[in-house]
Amino acid sequence: MALIGVVFASILLLVLLVAYFRLNTFIAFLIVCLFMGLALNVVREPAQRMSIADITQSIQTGIGKTLGSLVIIIVFGSMLGKLVAESGAAQRIANGLMQVFGRKYVQWSLMLTGFIVGIPLFYNIGFVLMVPLIFTVAARTKLPAVYLGIPMLASLSVTHGYLPPHPSPTALVGAFHANMGLTLIYGLLVAIPAIVLAGPVFSRFLRKYTQEPAQLFTTAALPDDQLPGLATSILAALLPVLLLASTSLLKLKAAPDSALYNIVSWLGDPVIVMLLAVLNGAYVLGIRRGLPIKKVMGIMEDAIRDVSVIILIIGGSGALTQMLLDSKVSDVIKDGLGSMHMNPLILAWSIAALIRVSVGSATVAGLTAAGIVAPLVAGTTVHPSLMVLATGAGSLMFSHVNDGGFWMFKEYFNLSVKDTFKTWSIMETIVSVVGLIGCLILNIFI
């Protein structure tokens, strides 16, 4: 029990450092790792204690192991998302879908735009770049900005929490040893009802929020003659999904060790998928349209700066996970959680949701929960891809005042704190709960 007490004290310390003292999350993770290692030494027998060198080595190993397999995918994903946004591809997708759906179903067009663009686009960047598009559509249609914005932002939130190649789901795939392609396929099945219910269905009750959006955040749209084609834009944004999903399905059909199986496995490797997607995006969205290669490379360099903070957070979470493994506490956690006889999906969702409400960061919540729950999965029949999705869904639970996204939505849409709770926070809660329900349903058939 003393070991479990140290783990809970460490998680509480992480919450306090991040949520109350506003300490940099990466630094907070390192402090918590050191605290855990030293505190465990106090309650353990001398033969089981870790030296300070062992503790720091564990931190370095955890950061290296976690980022070694993820940093390429995360950086490439950020580059592709930046290209889609800066080239005007996102605007073209929105314009094209609005023409298809018409004014009556404009919410659905924005929802689909958020989903398509949200797959490659890092969440915070997607929020900043897509919200002005919502304001443009609101001014054109004379509909409330909140009513139009919630469906698109629900899509961005779901892709951020559920679907690779976003940083948190990608890291969770590694933590639970899941297949990225299958996780993406199952994630799409879970994402669709979550987005529909949290988006167009929920926003039916939001027509009364007629506040004018903050003028500070309105930006001029690019002229239509400067935008890439619709088909080109959609293909560039969705190429990672198409490659990951198609190669995963082909591998199920191909004979093991056959030439086709080996080729498909190579093409379906996430690093190769993201490299091909970035090269395709750089060419069709930039170079082919006459942009100087220096400009295209500049967009990619900006993308690296955008995602640097999240890379450090993921590295810090990897250090905490490694500390749990090296200190053998993970075995104690596995035995303790196993005796609870709780469905692992519900357990992972609950822990992630609790940390999310406490800390505010979806990424921190998901990765910390995975470090706690992952040891339990090896002894169960639950599909690891569903564990990724359930944990990701829990990490989106009830965004409130300790989450930057809460304040971004409030300021951009010019709402009071009370109205932000009644719109944004409820939308995030619906996304989270529906995601868990979807995982439980899929678990019956998988």
Automatic annotation (TrEMBL):
Belongs to the GntP permease family. The keyword Metal-binding does not apply. Keywords: Cell membrane, Membrane, Transmembrane, Transmembrane helix, Transport. It is found in: Cell membrane. It is a multi-pass membrane protein. Signal peptide: none annotated. This is Gnt-I system high-affinity gluconate transporter. The chain crosses the membrane at residues 27-43, 63-85, 105-138, 145-163, 183-206, 227-246, 266-286, 307-325, 345-374, 421-445. GO terms for molecular function: gluconate transmembrane transporter activity. GO terms for cellular component: plasma membrane. PANTHER family: GNT FAMILY GLUCONATE TRANSPORTER (PTHR30354), HIGH-AFFINITY GLUCONATE TRANSPORTER (PTHR30354:SF22).
